[in-house]
Amino acid sequence: MKRAMYFLDQKDMPTHWYNIQADLPEPLPPPLHPATKKPLTPPDLTPLFPMELIMQEVSTERWIEIPEEVQDVYRTWRPTVLHRAYRLEKALDTPAKIFYKYEGTSQAGSHKPNTAVAQAYYNKQEGIKRMTTETGAGQWGSALAMGCAFFGIELKVYMVRISYDQKPYRRILMETWGAKCVPSPSTDNCVTRDDTHYSLGSVLNHVLLHQTIVGEECRKQMEMADAYPDIIVGCIGGGSNFAGQFLPWIRDKISGEKPDMRIVCVEPESCPSVTRGRHP
User: Fold this and answer.
1) pLDDT tens, 35-71?
2) Region label for 152, one of left (φ > 0), alpha (ψ between -120 and 50) or beta (otherwise)
3) What's the rounded Cα separation, in Å, for the pair 143 and 156?
4) Which run of H or of E encompasses 198?
5) Hey, how many other C-beta atoms are within 10 angstroms of the C-beta on 172?
6) CA–CA separation, 140 vs 184, rounded Å?
7) DSSP 3-state helix, strand, coil percentages of the chain (rounded to 5)?
8) Cα(132)–Cα(200) distance, rounded to whole angstroms?
């Protein structure tokens, strides 16, 4: 019988996130303050994020330990399964071996709780009682609502108006986990209280860091399958989903162990922000 699914035992779930900044040939340019256009400093970010996330944002340590409390929550759906796509291989009539990692088994139905749970935890550790965020279709809002529910934090979500009207099930999911969801744009000021922090579900370094548990699990599962990727393909919006998969592999390309590995990012034709986007 051909094996089509590779399950990693929970005792083998990664205990550390991988930080690509430790292995880059040169440091990333610093993010700029939107008002001054000068490099952001930790004090600039403290009104928005807990200090631990700020330090992860600029860290150059290769491995950052996943807190046991976060691992406990991860274990409610992780590790996720790696599939061998035999039927797709046959349909394409290709000699290639095709694998895919399925991240849809979390309670929120996506990869986004990997960072939502971590962000909620670090805010809880800093004594934050209330968080706020924005969401488009609702996946991020529901993921953070789930994370905040695990750690007893109040959450307010600003949801894109068209999605708020067209996707009531996502709004209901957020509300089921205790979040308050309002349509956006809104006249509210989202961060007006000292006990409130902001959260973002993509783009930022610490978000990509938290998602690397996906690729770290996959490395172990590919060993189980006696395989190693030549090409890694993934869809990108903000990039956290795909980065979580390819960053743990690209270190082999950087080190020279796998110099010919291809990383292929696929973005929507309707919003080609990488291939045809304008740099501000």
Assistant:
1) 898 988 888 899 899 999 999 999 999 999 999 999 9
2) left
3) 13
4) strand 196-198
5) 13
6) 15
7) 40, 15, 45
8) 9
- The DSSP annotation for 130-167 comes to EEEEEESSSHHHHHHHHHHHHHT-EEEEEEEHHHHHH-
Mode of pairing for the β-strands spanning 99-101 and 82-84: antiparallel
How far apart CA 214 and CA 114 sit, in angstroms, is 9
| 196: its two tokens | 């409130």
In this model, does residue 274 exceed pLDDT 90? no
Strands 154-160 and 130-135: parallel
Task: Determine the Cα–Cα distance for residues 4 and 166; give it in Å rounded to an integer.
Answer: 36
**Which own/partner pairs from 134-138 qualify as long-range (CB within 8 Å, at least 24 positions apart)?**
134/158, 134/159, 134/160, 134/184, 134/190, 135/159, 135/160, 135/163, 135/170, 135/201, 136/160, 136/163, 137/163, 137/167, 137/170, 138/163, 138/167, 138/170, 138/171, 138/173, 138/174
Concatenated DSSP letters of 123-138? HHHTT--EEEEEESSS
* 154, β-bridge pairs: 130
Q: What's the rounded Cα separation, in Å, for the pair 109 and 103? A: 8
- Residue 138 is encoded by which pair of tokens? 């609702």
CATH T-level assignment (fold) for domain 5-266: Rossmann fold (3.40.50)
- Centre a 10 Å sphere on the Cβ of residue 80 and count the other Cβ atoms it contains: 22
Distance of CA 101 to the CA centre of its chain: 14
Q: Identity (one letter) of the amino acid at 94? A: T
**pLDDT on residue 72:** 98
- What DSSP character marks residue 20? G
pTM: 0.94
Which 8-state DSSP code applies to residue 201? S
Tell me how far apart the alpha carbons of residues 246 and 250 are, in angstroms, rounded to a whole number: 6
Collapsing DSSP states into helix, strand and coil, what is residue 228?
Answer: coil
